[in-house]
Amino acid sequence: MKNKTLLIISREYITRIQKKSFIILTILMPVLLAAIIVLPTILLLKSEEKQFSNVIVVDDTDIFINKFTDTENVNFHYKSGYIEDIKKEYLDNDSDIILHILDNSQSLKANLFYKKSLPSSLQSILESSMDDIFFNQMLQDSLNVQPKKFEHLKNLAKADIATIQIDSKGQEKELDSEVNQMFGMMCGFVIYMIIFLFAGQVLRGVLEEKSNRVVEVLISSVKPTQLLIGKIVGIALVGLTQLCIWILLLFAIIGGIQLLLPEVVSSATLPQDVATTQQMIPENVAQQSPENLFAMIQNYFSISFGAIIFCFIFFFIMGYLIYSTLFAATGSVVDNETDSQQYTLPITLPLLLSIILVPAISTNPNGSLAFWFSMIPLTSPIAMMVRLPSGVPTWELILSMVLTLSFLILIVYVSAKIYRIGILTYGKKPSWKTIFKWLKD
What we know:
2 domains, four-stranded mixed sheet, alpha/beta, D-Maltodextrin-Binding Protein, domain 2, 6 strands
C-alpha cells in the first residue's frame, strides 16, 4: 500500500511540474509581484524628475516673502504687482506655477494658477509650508515666542508610552502591539491565499480525471484511499515547490533591481521616515552580530520567533490538508466544476468568514470571538496565526493544534468513504441524503 501511494504522489508531482502552465506561472508570478512592488515607484520617480516647477509667489500679505524653501523639483521666486499682468508674463512657460496669497483677515487663503499640469502633492506641500510659516509668524507677533524655542518645548512635551507585557512567569517584555497585529494579519492572509490556491487545484485535478475516465484505470490497480492521499500529498508538494521557487525568484529579481537601481527599491519598500532612518543603520545596526539582530527581531513578539515559524508551518499544512481533502471529496461526487459549487460553498464559508473577521480578531486577540475561531478546526489555521504574535496561552495553542489534527483525521476518514463511491458515480449528481447514505456503507 505504501509503495502504491508513493507512486501516486510521484505521478501527481511529476505530471504537474512538467505542465507548461506550471512553468509559465512559476516564472511569471515573481515577475508580476516584483513589478507591482517596483514599477509604480519607477514611474513615480520618472514623473517627479520631469515635473520640475518654478513657483512664482505673489504675496498680498507680505508674510511669506523669502520664507519658502527651495527643493530639488521646486524653485520659489517672489514677485509683486497686479496678478493679471503676472499671469500673462509667466504662465507662457509650462513649468511655471503662480501662488497668489490673498490678503484676507478672516483666514489664510491662496490661489494656485497653472497652465497644463500640477505636480503631484505640490498643493499639499504648499499648504503645509504656508501653515508652518503663518503659525511661526503668529508666535512671534502675538506671543513673542521664537519658533525654534517653541519646537524645542513641543518636543519636550511629547509623551512616549512603552507597552510592556508581563507573562505568566512574571517576566516583563517591551513589545510593539501594532507590529504584532500587522504581522498576525499578514500570516492569516498568506495562509488563506495558499489554501484557496492549492486546495482548488485538488478539486480541479479530481474533476479532470473523473471527466476523462482516467480514474477508472487508476482504481483498477490502487485503492481509492491511496489515490485520494496520493493526489493530496502530490499537489501539496507541487505547491510547496512552486512557493519556494517564487520566494527565491522574487528575492533574486528585487536583489538585481537593487543593484542596478538602489534608490527605486528603497523608495518602494520603505516609507519616507523609515528611509530617512535607514541612513543611520550603518552606525547602529549593520555592525551588530546576527545573534543581536535576531534578538532585535525577537523583541517584537510575545513568543519566540521560532515558535511562530513552527506554528505557521503546522497550521498551513493542517489548513491545506483539511480543505484539500474536503475539495477532493466534493470533486468525486460531481462531473463538472459548475456542479461542485453547490457543495464547495458550505465548505468555504468558514474560511471566508475567518478572513473577513481578521481585523476584528487582530484588534482583540484574547476576546471570545478570537478564542472560539481559533478552536474551530475550519477557521483555526487563520484565526490562531492572527492571534499568535500578540501572545496566546500555551494551553490554548496546544488545544487548537489537537482539535485541528483530530478533525483532520476524522475528515480524511469521512472523505475517503465519499471518494470511494463518488469517484465512480456518473450522471445525476447525488443529493446530500445520498451522500450521507454512502457514509453508512
